[in-house]
């Protein structure tokens, strides 16, 4: 079993390194990118994958079912909230005019009631 433990520890170290690099690239992308759409992609895609890889590495290194039972809801909450928050920020950026219409390939929100420019009563 020591050989298997060494392999699992090595795999968990690689997963933590890759996950940390993905989270770092997400943070750098949020700071460096200029437009909202690019920042949203940088904030959600690599960050979620980085967290999943780090959680998988923790589960592999601990080799315990209670740890896995703790990490599964963490991953599920991240997978549920990251796209939702990105959608909300993107929609608000569209409403505020922060996303240029020339950058849109398809504009599904143009005719919807969400783009109501009338002042509230």
Automatic annotation (TrEMBL):
It comes from Microbacterium endophyticum. This is Multicomponent Na+:H+ antiporter subunit G. The keyword RNA-binding does not apply. The lineage of its organism: Bacteria, Bacillati, Actinomycetota, Actinomycetes, Micrococcales. The chain crosses the membrane at residues 6-31, 43-61, 67-86. Coiled coil: none annotated. GO terms for molecular function: sodium:proton antiporter activity. InterPro entries: PhaG_MnhG_YufB (IPR005133). Belongs to the CPA3 antiporters (TC 2.A.63) subunit G family. Pfam families: PhaG_MnhG_YufB (PF03334). Keywords: Membrane, Transmembrane, Transmembrane helix.
């Amino acid at each position: 079993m020591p050989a298997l433990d060494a392999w699992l520890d090595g795999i968990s170290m690689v997963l933590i390194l890759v996950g940390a690099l993905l989270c770092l690239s997400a943070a750098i992308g949020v700071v460096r990118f200029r437009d909202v759409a690019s920042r949203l992609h940088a904030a959600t895609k690599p960050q979620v994958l980085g967290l999943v890889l780090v959680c998988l590495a923790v589960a592999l290194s601990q080799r315990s079912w209670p740890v896995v039972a703790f990490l599964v809801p963490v991953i599920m909450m991240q997978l549920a909230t990251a796209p939702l928050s990105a959608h909300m920020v993107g929609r608000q950026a569209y409403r505020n005019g922060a996303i240029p219409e020339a950058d849109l390939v398809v504009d599904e929100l143009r005719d919807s009631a969400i783009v109501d420019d009338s002042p509230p009563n």
